[in-house]
């Protein structure tokens, strides 16, 4: 039996860890750390730093190379194939390092429940016949870090918030019945495709990290600034993780 602990680590800042997360890391028999290539070496370094800071007892920490998602073609099919490959990699690591079962911990950016596929990958292992119990230590999601950094509420009074992706925003436009739209996973600056009239944006990259970058203001003015700044940051660091909130004034009849 594998007890899989998915531990939300926010943006990798040790101050973002809950006591539950720290306890789960220290109770683990094995912590697996994925490597995502040289361009994202900062991410594995952050996980290493977390382990060095939080662990108070000897815990085996093993790094492994994460499979790369194929570009082009059908997006959902490519993601499905990628998740299958990750599940196979997890299975190989478990067979090698926890052949008799035990407590396995994976450190998940943000929170495991919000725009992260770790739970779906774990389900593949369970449906594939692996005896596994899944436990979650929730973490600070990027939207929480974003609204905290800008000191703004997520929603307006009595109004809904739609959480979507850059792909959906670009293809479908502004979601109906929403005053506020939180956008994740936008590598193409889909906010530039919207009518900016009456819309404000709050953007953040590397939230909670030393290199945190923020921008906010009317969309028509701020969007071009974000595009330029985002490209420069990506070139400087070799990778970028960012998110943003859009809010438009409610139309008065």
Automatic annotation (TrEMBL):
<keyword id="KW-0489">Methyltransferase</keyword>
<comment type="pathway">
    <text>Cofactor biosynthesis; adenosylcobalamin biosynthesis.</text>
</comment>
<protein>
    <recommendedName>
        <fullName>Precorrin-6A synthase [deacetylating]</fullName>
        <ecNumber>2.1.1.152</ecNumber>
    </recommendedName>
</protein>
<keyword id="KW-0949">S-adenosyl-L-methionine</keyword>
<dbReference type="InterPro" id="IPR035996">
    <property type="entry name" value="4pyrrol_Methylase_sf"/>
</dbReference>
<dbReference type="InterPro" id="IPR014777">
    <property type="entry name" value="4pyrrole_Mease_sub1"/>
</dbReference>
<dbReference type="InterPro" id="IPR014776">
    <property type="entry name" value="4pyrrole_Mease_sub2"/>
</dbReference>
<dbReference type="GO" id="GO:0043819">
    <property type="term" value="F:precorrin-6A synthase (deacetylating) activity"/>
</dbReference>
<feature type="domain" description="Tetrapyrrole methylase">
    <location>
        <begin position="4"/>
        <end position="220"/>
    </location>
</feature>
<dbReference type="InterPro" id="IPR012797">
    <property type="entry name" value="CobF"/>
</dbReference>
<keyword id="KW-0169">Cobalamin biosynthesis</keyword>
<keyword id="KW-0808">Transferase</keyword>
<dbReference type="GO" id="GO:0009236">
    <property type="term" value="P:cobalamin biosynthetic process"/>
</dbReference>
<dbReference type="Pfam" id="PF00590">
    <property type="entry name" value="TP_methylase"/>
</dbReference>
<dbReference type="GO" id="GO:0032259">
    <property type="term" value="P:methylation"/>
</dbReference>
<dbReference type="InterPro" id="IPR000878">
    <property type="entry name" value="4pyrrol_Mease"/>
</dbReference>
């Amino acid at each position: 039996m594998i007890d899989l602990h998915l531990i939300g680590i926010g943006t990798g800042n040790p101050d973002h860890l809950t006591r539950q997360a720290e306890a789960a890391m220290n109770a683990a028999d094995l912590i697996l750390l994925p490597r995502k290539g040289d361009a994202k070496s900062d991410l594995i370094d952050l996980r290493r730093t977390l382990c060095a800071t939080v662990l108070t007892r000897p815990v085996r920490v093993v790094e492994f190379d994460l499979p790369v998602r194929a570009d082009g073609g059908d997006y959902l099919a490519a993601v499905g194939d990628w998740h299958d490959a990750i599940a196979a990699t997890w299975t190989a690591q478990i067979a090698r390092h926890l052949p008799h079962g035990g407590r396995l911990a994976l450190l998940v950016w943000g929170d495991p429940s919000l725009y992260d596929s770790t739970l779906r990958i774990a389900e593949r292992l369970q449906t594939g016949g692996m005896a596994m119990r899944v436990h979650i230590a929730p973490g600070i999601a990027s939207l929480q870090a974003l609204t905290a950094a800008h000191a703004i509420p997520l929603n307006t009074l009595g109004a809904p918030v739609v959480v979507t992706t850059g792909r959906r925003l670009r293809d479908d436009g502004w979601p109906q019945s929403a005053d506020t739209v939180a956008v994740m996973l936008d590598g193409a600056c889909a906010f530039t495709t919207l009518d900016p009239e009456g819309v404000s944006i709050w953007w953040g990259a590397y939230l909670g990290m030393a290199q945190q970058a923020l921008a906010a203001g009317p969309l028509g003015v701020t969007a071009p600034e974000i595009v330029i700044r985002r490209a420069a940051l990506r070139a400087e660091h070799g990778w970028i993780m960012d998110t943003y909130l859009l809010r438009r004034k409610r139309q008065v009849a």
